[in-house]
Specification:
The protein is an alpha/beta fold. It has one domain (7-164): NADP-dependent oxidoreductase domain (TIM Barrel, Alpha-Beta Barrel). It has five helices and eight strands; from the N terminus they run βββαβαβαβββαα. Strands 3-4-5-6 form a four-stranded parallel β-sheet, with helices on one face. A two-stranded antiparallel sheet has the order 1-2. The radius of gyration is 17 Å and the shape is globular. It catalyses: xylitol + NAD(+) = D-xylose + NADH + H(+); xylitol + NADP(+) = D-xylose + NADPH + H(+).
């Protein structure tokens, strides 16, 4: 990481740039947008499989003159890949799309699991999201894998997370509570 960029130390020991460049929307514009962001000094690129922009970002990273160790790349696991047996394949696909060997941070995009398969937004016969009951903690501790973080949880998940984490298997680097105001400031220390 270039020293002129402000970073924050995660409890995993990694430094994350204070400002990241988000890549949601408009796959066709992402390659040039990411190159422009990198030229402007951004070093954290945030993407997700569901955005459909990983391949364009990969092309931009390949065209940039920056070495991989100068960058911080975040991607996210989408809801249709929450089964433990699907997580590694999802990570591998993101790495292939991004044309990189590793991710600095891999987040669970949302704790609700959709029905597994290629359809990113499966629907039932009434047109509602087709969800399944998969424990998000089990997703993150898939045997042989260590994910740096999982994100965006409702306050009811807080106790379960704190009681379920084994620091030898999973280091939590981000914990985002989706509850307005109620939890502000309560998670100052690492859970």
């Amino acid at each position: 990481m270039a020293s002129r960029h402000t970073t924050f130390r995660l409890n995993t020991g990694e430094d994350i740039p204070a400002i990241g460049f988000g890549t949601w929307q408009d796959e066709n514009a992402q390659e040039d947008a990411v190159l422009t962001a990198l030229s402007a000094g951004y070093r954290h690129i945030d993407t997700a499989a569901v955005y459909g922009t990983e391949k364009a970002i990969g092309r931009a990273l390949a065209r940039s003159r920056l070495s991989r160790d100068e960058l911080f790349i975040t991607s996210k696991l989408w809801n249709n890949k929450h089964r433990p047996e699907d997580v590694e394949q999802a990570i591998d696909q993101s790495l292939k799309n991004l044309e990189i060997d590793y991710l600095d941070l891999y987040l669970m995009h949302w704790p609700a699991a959709f029905a597994p398969g290629d359809d990113m937004f499966p629907k039932d016969s009434q047109g509602n999201s087709k969800t399944v009951d998969i424990d998000y903690v089990d997703v993150c501790v898939t045997p042989g894998m260590i994910l740096a973080s999982c994100a965006k949880y409702h306050s009811r998940h807080t106790k379960r997370w704190r009681n379920s984490l084994n620091p030898e298997r999973l280091k939590l680097s981000e914990f985002q509570i989706s509850q307005k105001g109620k939890w502000k400031g309560c998670l100052r220390a690492a859970p």
